[in-house]
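Two records follow; treat each independently.
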Amino acid sequence: MKSYKQGLVSFLKTHTYQEAEIRGHRFRYLFCGHGSTVLALFVGGLGRQELWYPYIDRLEKDYRILTFSYPDTCRTNRELLQAIHELMEDLDISSCVVVGSSFGGYLAQQFVRNWPEMTKALILFSTAAFSSATLARLRERYPRSKRDMIMALLHLVPYPVMKPVRIRLLKRSFSHVTEEERIYMDGLLQEIYRDYTAREDIHLTGLFFDLLFQKPARTSDYLFLGHRILLRLPADDTTFSSEMQADLVRLMPGAVLDLSVRGGHMATMMNPAEYTDAICQFLEETGLGPDSE
């Protein structure tokens, strides 16, 4: 298995990120690939769009791919989603398949609810329902006192001290991994956190806490998609409980389900080949594959 860093270095030799200013927010984004169907990739809570590069490598021959940073001037989910929508408009994207992982899955659910006319299909990995029940569980997990403590630590503790703590916490989410996968993920986290800043961490943690108080979604928000929803949820995900996953399945009763995945919460990043194969199969079965264009 090629290391994450080796693959990224090779990827960046042929792919150039661009920048755009939307409502005063500076986006760093990548829009590449071939085909008429656009896949919009919403990255998880680390916020680094580079995490999607193995997916782009495998999908761009058949699909147009959009992925982007979350500008740190967007303080709320609502502000961020509005800016993402306007970025898509500026790029003349009228419709897309929305793909979200972890925190990106929450953003994806909100995007689809706000702009159903732009959504061809929805694909969610390693996430949970944007529902009243799950948001209530998350508010119980992160009461005001705990949220304040986490934000205070991020502001006050020197970030070189915080980085190894954050990495250790993420490593706990690995499950059923081979030695080769563990080495790959160790390298991935070291590379992502190499130049990660306290400002980034504070911003993304704040966005996560903000979503806990957004208006929850309802089943009716997603009925228009029918079976054009794929939920791929690791059975051994310790970040989002089985109850939260079951709540997502109830929220989207027409979804195609894959609940047999292993690897823990970060399986999405650990096994990109397996996940991109699942994306391609799902899109072909729903009439959105390259052969249907």
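The next record belongs to a different protein.
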Amino acid sequence: MSAALLVAAGISGLLHIRADYQRQWALTYIYKPLTMLLILGLALQGGQPDPYRFAIVTGLILSLVGDVFLMLKPARFLPGLTAFLFAHLAYLVGFAYASQGLHLIASAIALLTGLIMLRLLWPGLGRLWLPVTLYVAAIVAMVAAAFSAALEAPSAYRLAAAAGALAFLISDATLGVARFRKPFEAAQALILSSYYLGQSLIALSAGSLYS
């Protein structure tokens, strides 16, 4: 069942990317939420709910809410950013539950990455400097917690969560550059492909890979 959902999510995600580039917004309104619903299904393939699975499912639902805000024309950027901020906080809670504490090297690398992101984006942030700074802080903490859990006790679900968190970071960094620095043609494909990959891995960490 998980394999079928994963394939379906991949196909739906590719159709979403194609619709965006062809500016077929009616199809975007279908494929974007459909892809996230399929990914959400991956997280629900596990057994009984526990704090980790509950946190991941909550993060996926909040991400779906953020997607809806961002796909509107015109996009509701601040509400979407807020929804994703809380999604990252939900993921952070889940990853913190899976670990005994933060790994020093993982935390330092994540923090340095966040500072580089802010330095790169800062000239274009304007009045959005505060929400974007809070958002970057949340995703940095989320990535640090995911890698701390994976380094502490490597397992399939912890490694999937760490890889998913990294892919999510790549997606957000690309989105930030395209929005606040300089847009480029391949941006949307890179943003969405890394986003769906990250969300799928995080969902799998709470679903069939969770043990």
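Discussion point: The chain is about 80% helix and 0% strand. How would you locate this feature using only the token line?
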